[in-house]
């Protein structure tokens, strides 16, 4: 009896350690470090997301990126999936990203989204503390790596292109390629085929040479510090109703779950930049807003919290 209970407990603990969430204290982003050690926000660790402010240095050699195959219609089909944490579009092979100061050629693997709720914004990166309604991530893997786990062991193994998403009244017809398919992946584990379309049509038409660059981590477990981040300055615009399809019609639970839970606020909290520099591309219009907290002060507040809380389970 005792043994059964012990085994059951180990089983529950192990099962619990494999998944993460955004909405319950035992598995939310502040608790990820308990199950995924790399997610601990230790001093001088390079985590994402961050707040982008005017503490940036321009680098005139950061010109436009090369987006190979983004303007073509790829063969085969793509797959849209609700993995319980986001909606992910697996885009197969045929596209690659290079230039713009990236250390290598990167193959495009997938794109996915982070959003808020019906009344809250949910971008991961903030700009002068402003959180945008949504953020899109295009994930690219360094071409020398045979698989994702090898890329996650390389400090520049992934190049993620981040796009802030803002809201206007008019529908974005290109975004319809994805938003029209969302009802087929409302529940966790559901997948649907998507006819390939030129990925470039999702991106801002102009000003793609205006971006910010820094070195950080995955914003989901295992939080590997393996990402060269490129955040584009000009947002993508979609309509309120297209946004609402994400915030109220996607669920983090399976279709047959007793209680259905909407997938909302699937963003990780902001992390300190510490000694990192964020660089602005040659064409970026540097931020002009009010100053955020100086990095040194942020670091000492964090240190104080570690001392006062006696551990790393504090909340920033
Ligand atoms: C500017 O970017 C280039 C290309 O990535 C890099 O080689 C160089 O070190 C950067 N310069 C500074 C001052 O960061
Ligand atoms: C949320 O997004 C809206 C639309 O872009 C913006 O007007 C508002 O300032 C944002 N709110 C916060 C708290 O950043
Ligand atoms: C990933 O690639 C590395 C390096 O070649 C290899 O050692 C490892 O076994 C591969 N892992 C998987 C899961 O295929
Ligand atoms: C886009 O680029 C043009 C030309 O450089 C510039 O005039 C305009 O201000 C830029 N737009 C934004 C939103 O940064
Ligand atoms: Zn992401």
UniProtKB/TrEMBL annotation:
InterPro entries listed in its UniProt record: CA_dom, CA_dom_sf, Carbonic_anhydrase_a-class, Carbonic_anhydrase_a-class_CS
Catalytic activity: hydrogencarbonate + H(+) = CO2 + H2O
Signal peptide (residue range): 1-16
Cofactor names: Zn(2+)
The UniProt record lists the keyword Zinc: yes
Domain Alpha-carbonic anhydrase: 18-282
Stretches assigned to coiled coil: none
GO molecular function per UniProt: carbonate dehydratase activity; zinc ion binding
Protein EC: 4.2.1.1
Keywords: Glycoprotein, Lyase, Metal-binding, Signal, Zinc
Record's keyword annotation contains Isomerase: no
Domain of life: Eukaryota
Top EC group: lyase
GO cellular component: plasma membrane
Family: Belongs to the alpha-carbonic anhydrase family.
Function: Reversible hydration of carbon dioxide.
Record's protein name: Carbonic anhydrase
Gene: car15
């Amino acid at each position: 009896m005792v043994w059964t209970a012990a085994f059951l407990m180990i089983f529950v603990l192990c099962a619990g350690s494999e998944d993460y969430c955004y909405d319950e204290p035992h598995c939310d982003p502040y608790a990820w470090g308990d199950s995924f050690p790399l997610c601990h926000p230790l001093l001088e660790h390079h985590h994402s997301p961050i707040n982008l402010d005017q503490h940036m240095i321009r680098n005139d050699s950061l010109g436009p990126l090369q987006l190979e195959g983004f303007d073509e219609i790829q063969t085969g089909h793509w797959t849209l999936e609700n993995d319980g944490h986001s909606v992910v579009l697996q885009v197969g092979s045929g596209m690659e990203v290079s230039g713009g100061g990236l250390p290598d050629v990167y193959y495009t693997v997938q794109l996915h989204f982070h959003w808020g709720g019906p009344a809250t914004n949910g971008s991961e990166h903030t700009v002068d503390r402003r959180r945008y309604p949504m953020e899109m991530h295009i994930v690219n893997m360094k071409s020398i790596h045979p698989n994702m786990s090898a890329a996650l062991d390389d400090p520049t193994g992934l190049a993620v292109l981040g796009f802030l998403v803002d809201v206007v009244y008019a529908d974005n017809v290109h975004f319809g390629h994805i938003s029209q398919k969302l009802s087929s992946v409302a529940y966790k584990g559901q997948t649907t085929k998507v006819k390939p379309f030129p990925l470039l049509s999702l991106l801002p038409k102009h000003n793609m040479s205006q971006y910010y660059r820094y070195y950080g981590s995955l914003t989901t477990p295992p939080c590997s510090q393996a990402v060269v981040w490129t955040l584009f300055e000009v947002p993508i615009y979609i309509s309120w109703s297209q946004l609402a399809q994400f915030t109220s019609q996607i669920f983090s639970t399976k279709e047959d779950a007793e209680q259905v839970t909407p997938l909302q606020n699937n963003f990780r909290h902001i992390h300190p930049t510490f000694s990192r520099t964020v660089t602005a591309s040659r064409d970026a219009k540097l931020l002009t807003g009010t100053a955020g907290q100086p990095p040194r002060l942020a670091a000492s507040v964090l240190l104080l919290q570690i001392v006062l809380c006696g551990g790393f389970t504090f909340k920033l």
